[in-house]
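Priority: medium. Attachment 1 of 2:
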């Protein structure tokens, strides 16, 4: 039971304000409902249908600029896995960012917008023949190697010296969901510190490869700056060991992404300024102690740049007891089912003075676990046809979307200054049938 169940009048007054931190800054609530970038969600729902991902361009750019201002000496590479489409990659290129891709598919989008090849890093624990072909064909600047097999494969494929980073798992627990914790040892990514020198020797033995630096990514949705600081220290210490053993000093250190965002009101914002200071000090101090030049630092945020710039609009199809069922579900939001992620849901198409009640917002798919949000407060008069909005869906929603139940994936609609345009159109049954050639 929530406070609003006991005191419905509190619930009524709360519904008139937008919860801070989770909505894009351009979102506002009026008596007619929610608007974003000056456009009412009813208009967006009518024009583009539901479900629909809405992406606020200014919010993405504002976040990029906040990163640039907080981390002036860092290279910032957008992690494309969080949300890749032409428009977003174009904005990232314009903001002066680099780009992390991890498949030929992501690279194809980068290529389509002419993303500068020297600013692209290719990642992944599995790189297929198609991935190698695409990356070498486009001459991406750096490739992050993840296994001894890869070092050998790339060594024989690279036509001219290819700059590589070696992915290391520094043995740091980022205290996040175990499915997205990648800094701890004994897992599929990278080389644990105790084996990483073997990778260094393997790279140095390949005439077609040039060791540019080291890479680590300790996980995603990480709130603790101390975990990044510890990882940074361990990585610089390892650079010292490489110098001692091989007499060379790799010039760059990529500390990955993983900066947490608030999904619910009241959740702590990532301490970006603290991160910048503490990581820089940890790197400089450790390097100075070991008599090393400070490495060039790269970071790879994805979620922190786009998550809070996106909202999803749904239409209520039916209300049954405490279940409010909408026209989307786990095919457009896998995070709730995969990680038990929690979301806020808001009646967005109108305002209501009805008391709040606690409900579960569920999807249309044939599974009891197809839930978007449990125990959320919505006005008791929510009914079929209402438009609901879920914030913080800009990252790992479209990119994780599926066609479960042959449902077509929603569009991404870009909004800015009173204008809305489709960035990615809604999938159609023809799109689905086009692949079904049997
Ligand atoms: N760099 C590397 C090498 C990564 O693997 C990732 C994310 C990032 C950067 C960006 O991390 P971010 O800043 O976005 O947290 N599907 C999960 C997240 C998986 C993250 C995978 N790697 C989720 O929805 O929470």
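Attachment 2 of 2:
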């Amino acid at each position: 039971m929530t406070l609003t169940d006991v005191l419905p009048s509190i619930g009524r007054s709360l519904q008139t304000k937008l919860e801070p931190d989770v909505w894009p800054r351009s979102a506002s609530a009026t008596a007619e409902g929610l608007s974003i970038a000056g456009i009412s969600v009813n208009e967006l729902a009518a024009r583009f249908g539901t479900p629909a991902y809405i992406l606020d361009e200014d919010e993405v750019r504002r976040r990029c600029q906040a990163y640039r201002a907080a981390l002036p000496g860092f290279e910032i590479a957008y992690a494309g896995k969080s949300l890749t489409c032409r428009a977003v990659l174009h904005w990232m290129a314009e903001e002066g960012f680099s780009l992390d891709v991890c498949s030929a598919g992501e690279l194809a989008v980068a290529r389509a917008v002419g993303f500068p090849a020297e600013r692209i890093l290719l990642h992944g624990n599995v790189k297929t023949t198609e991935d190698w072909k695409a990356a070498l064909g486009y001459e991406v600047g750096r490739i992050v190697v993840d296994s001894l097999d890869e070092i050998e494969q790339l060594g024989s494929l690279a036509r001219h010296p290819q700059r590589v980073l070696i992915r290391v798992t520094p043995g740091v627990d980022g205290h996040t969901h175990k499915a997205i914790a990648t800094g701890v040892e004994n897992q599929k990514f990278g080389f644990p510190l105790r084996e990483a020198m073997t990778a260094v020797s393997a790279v140095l033995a390949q005439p077609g490869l040039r060791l540019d630096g080291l890479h680590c990514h300790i996980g995603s949705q990480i709130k603790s700056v101390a975990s990044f600081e510890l990882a940074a220290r361990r990585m610089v210490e390892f650079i010292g060991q490489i110098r001692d053993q091989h007499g060379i000093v790799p010039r760059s250190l990529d500390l990955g992404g993983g900066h947490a965002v608030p999904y619910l009101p009241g959740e702590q914002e990532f301490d970006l300024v603290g991160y910048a200071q503490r990581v820089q000090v940890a790197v400089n101090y450790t390097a100075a102690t070991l008599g090393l030049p400070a490495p060039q630092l790269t970071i790879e945020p994805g979620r922190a740049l786009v998550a809070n710039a996106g909202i999803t609009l749904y239409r209520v199809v039916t209300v049954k007891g405490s279940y409010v069922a909408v026209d989307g579900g786990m095919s457009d939001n896998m995070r709730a089912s995969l990680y038990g992620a929690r979301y806020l849901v808001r009646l967005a198409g109108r305002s209501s003075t009805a008391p709040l009640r606690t409900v579960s917002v569920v999807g249309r798919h044939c599974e009891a676990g197809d839930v978007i949000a449990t125990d959320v407060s919505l006005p008791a008069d929510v009914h079929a046809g209402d438009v609901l909005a879920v914030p913080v869906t800009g990252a790992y929603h479209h990119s994780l979307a599926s066609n479960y139940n042959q449902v077509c994936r929603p569009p991404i609609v870009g909004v800015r200054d009173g204008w809305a345009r489709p960035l990615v159109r809604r999938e159609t049954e023809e799109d689905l049938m086009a692949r079904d050639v049997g």
